[in-house]
Design a protein that fits this description.
The protein folds into 2 domains: about 200 residues, NAD(P)-binding Rossmann-like Domain (Rossmann fold, 3-Layer(aba) Sandwich), CATH 3.40.50.720; about 120 residues, UDP-galactose 4-epimerase, domain 1. About 40% of the residues lie in helices and about 20% in strands. It has a 7-stranded parallel sheet with strand order 3-2-1-4-5-6-10, with helices on both faces. α4 packs parallel to α5. About 45% of the residues are buried.
Length: about 325
């Protein structure tokens, strides 16, 4: 299948592009390089373009006879979304509306959307199931949920078959640790800890040590990037016969902040400064996924259920690429 990968030069998109190609698909990357890296795109046609540019999207859809679209081109910083809500609604919602309009006008009806566990807000129960109430507490989560609702209503018209995949914490490096995570600024826990272990940060901060968890620190669900991408392949295939798919993607097993820190110390053989500070507003004690629906309906299975091999792959990439990508 010819697949337009929007945001295909980013962390998840670049891993997805590689996996699509290795599984018989023909990926075409569409990215404005505001967050992504040209060097992360391997063996795929590349179109530099913005999702605000309707004409350029249509031109790419037509030129490459695109049959499906995968969308990874969102802004993802929760704090930034609170400070700049209009920017997040413009990029995450308005630009996706533009993309879907172009798809409809070009008769492309398969859409795999990168959503988020942030749509649930602070859940009343864990592990989180797909039918739990959606109560986003920030513009990032709200913009993603708004896109899901837009897809749902469009699907009801018969003009869209879509999959909304709600990620928990994507991490690790794909392709045997050679395709990694390079955000600026970096906000994800594992690369931040690794940078502390590499001496690129003065310390790693623990925000709150008095949560009702076994060691007092927050517990989160971490999923290896390749496991995440495999679910997308399975969802894409299922869109041949299904109009609407919604799945949580996580390991279903949580690790605390302290556990992740200790794992990085073990893998790296390095010690580093850990600073305990006050809680951040809105951080739930535990966020873990119930991914049984994806396991049952897609036949999906995670290959990296434990945190150590995830950290090992990330450590390999960061130590081999201390300055990130070269572009």
């Amino acid at each position: 299948m010819r697949v337009l990968v929007c945001g295909g030069a980013g962390y998840i998109g670049s891993n997805m592009t590689l996996m699509l190609g290795r599984n018989g698909h023909e990926p075409i990357v569409y990215d404005n390089l505001s967050k992504g890296h040209r060097d992360a795109v391997r063996n795929a046609e590349f179109v530099q373009g913005d999702l605000a540019d309707y004409d350029k999207i249509c031109a790419a859809l037509k030129k490459y006879s695109i049959e499906a679209v995968m969308h990874f081109a969102a802004f993802i910083e929760v704090g930034e979304s609170v400070a700049q809500p209009l920017r997040y609604y413009q990029n995450n919602f308005c630009n996706t509306h533009n993309l879907l309009t172009a798809m409809q006008d070009c008769d492309v009806n398969k859409f795999v959307f990168s959503s988020t566990a942030a749509t649930y807000g602070i859940p009343g129960t864990v592990p989180i199931t797909e039918d739990l109430e959606k109560s986003p507490i920030n513009p990032y989560g709200e913009s993603k949920w708004a896109v899901e609702r837009m897809c749902q209503f469009l699907s009801q018209t018969g003009k869209l078959n879509y999959a909304a995949l709600r990620y928990f914490n994507a991490c690790g490096a794909g392709d045997d640790g050679t395709l990694g995570e390079d955000h600026s600024p970096e906000s994800h826990l594992i690369p931040l800890i690794i940078k502390a272990a590499m001496g690129l940060r003065d310390d790693i901060k623990i925000f709150g040590t008095d949560y009702p968890t076994p060691d007092g620190t927050c517990v989160r669900d971490y999923i290896h990037i390749e496991d995440l991408c495999k679910a997308h392949l399975l969802a894409l295939a299922k869109l041949d016969t299904e109009k609407e798919l919604v799945y949580n993607l996580g390991n279903g097993k949580g690790y605390s902040v302290r556990e992740v820190i200790e794992t990085v110390k073990e893998v790296s053989g390095k010690d580093f400064k850990v600073t305990e500070v006050d809680r951040r507003p809105g951080d739930p004690p535990v966020l873990t996924a119930d991914a049984s629906k994806a396991i049952k309906e897609l036949g999906w299975k995670t290959e990296f259920p434990d945190i150590k091999p995830i950290v090992e792959s990330a450590w390999k990439w960061h130590t081999e690429n201390p300055n990130g990508y070269n572009d």
